[in-house]
Each structure stands twice: as C-alpha cells, then as structure tokens.
Write a structure and sequence with these properties.
This protein is mainly alpha-helical. The protein has one domain: Winged helix-like DNA-binding domain superfamily/Winged helix DNA-binding domain (Arc Repressor Mutant, subunit A, Orthogonal Bundle), CATH 1.10.10.10. The protein contains 7 helices and 3 strands; from the N terminus they run αααβααββαα. The protein has helices at residues 4-12, 21-52, 60-69, 76-82, 90-99, 121-144, 152-171; strands at 74-75, 103-107, 115-119. A 3-stranded antiparallel sheet has the order 1-3-2. α2 crosses α3 (60-69) and α3 packs across α6 (121-144). The termini are close together. InterPro entries: ArsR-like_HTH, HTH_MarR-typ, MarR/SlyA-like, Tscrpt_reg_MarR-type_CS, WH-like_DNA-bd_sf, WH_DNA-bd_sf. This is MarR family transcriptional regulator. GO terms for molecular function: DNA binding; DNA-binding transcription factor activity.
Length: 174
C-alpha cells in the first residue's frame, strides 16, 4: 500500500499531469546536493569561528550538539533525532562533552537505561557563541537581500514539506 505522499508522487509521474517532470526532477536532485553542501559549509563556518576564538577543544559537530541541546533537558535519543550529526556518533560525542564539562548527564529515575542530558554553564557559553555567529549571519543575509526572493519562510515551508515526505517514506518501508 502506498503512503499518501507516495501516491501524490506517482500521480505526478504521469507526464500528462506534469509536462516537464524532468525539469522538476533535476531541480529536486540539485536541491539534495545543495542541502548536503550547505550542511558541510555550516560545519566549516562553526570550525572557522572556533578557530578565530582559539577554541580548539570542540569539533563543529560537538558545538552543534551543544547548540541544538540549548536550554532543554532531553534524552540522548531525542537529541539524536532532532540534530544533524552526519557521520558522527552522538553517544561518543555526548560522552566527550560530559567528560569535558559541557554537558551534565543523569540516569532517568523511571527508566535506568535512559540518560537525560542538559548543558552545564560552560556548555551554555559555547551555545551562546554559536548562536551569536548565526545571528551575525542572519543580519548579513538580511542586509544583502538574499533572504527576500523567495522569502525565506516560503523556502522553509517547502523544506518542511520535503522533510515530512521523507519521514513518511521511511515509515512506510516497514
């Protein structure tokens, strides 16, 4: 049985319904490559920022884990599912962050297998460094007009639709 999103794509594949599917497909494939490159560039931006600040104790992935954790207290699994830690071992990085004093961890009273994590004061400082960097980038992009055509909220809406479609594809495999 096809998911609703799969049915929509199969209907789109009918050339009578979408006359220039190859153009749409090419744009989609280009978007996939662009997403991957942007993710890598974001990690490079974090790396460069930390090098400028002489903060060589953290990897960009570790810094992003701290940023995404924010002021929440979550399980390691929740953190893994909400982040973008391409090619990294979240458990290993969390252990490193705990040993370096950036993250506090505590076993759940209800389920001793589950570990809850939250930032220490030192972790919050790092999160703030990354946050300020992103704010500077947002200001620069806004001043340049890059975010206006199309408006970024529309780009984000489209990205969320693709994210939802991908999630449905994963769920309907089983």
């Amino acid at each position: 049985m096809l998911s609703p999103a799969s049915r929509d794509i199969h209907q789109l594949a009918d050339p009578r319904l979408v006359p220039d599917l190859s153009e749409t497909t090419d744009a989609y494939l280009d978007s996939l490559q662009l997403l991957e490159r942007m993710h890598r560039l974001m990690l490079d931006l974090v790396k460069d920022e930390f090098e400028r600040l002489n903060r060589n104790d953290l990897t960009p992935v570790q810094a992003m884990i701290l940023y995404n954790l924010g002021e929440s207290e979550v399980s390691a699994g929740e953190l893994r599912s909400r982040g973008m830690y391409q090619g990294s071992n979240v458990s290993y990085n969390l252990k490193k962050l705990v040993s370096m004093g950036y993250v506090h961890h505590e076993r759940s009273d209800l389920d001793r297998r589950s570990v809850r994590v939250r930032l220490t004061d030192t972790g919050l400082v790092v999160r703030e460094l990354v946050h300020r960097m992103f704010l500077r980038h947002a200001e620069g992009l806004a001043m340049s007009g890059i975010l206006e055509d199309p408006p970024l909220y529309q780009v984000n809406l489209q990205s969320r639709r693709i994210e939802r479609f991908w999630g449905e594809q994963i769920r309907y495999i089983y």
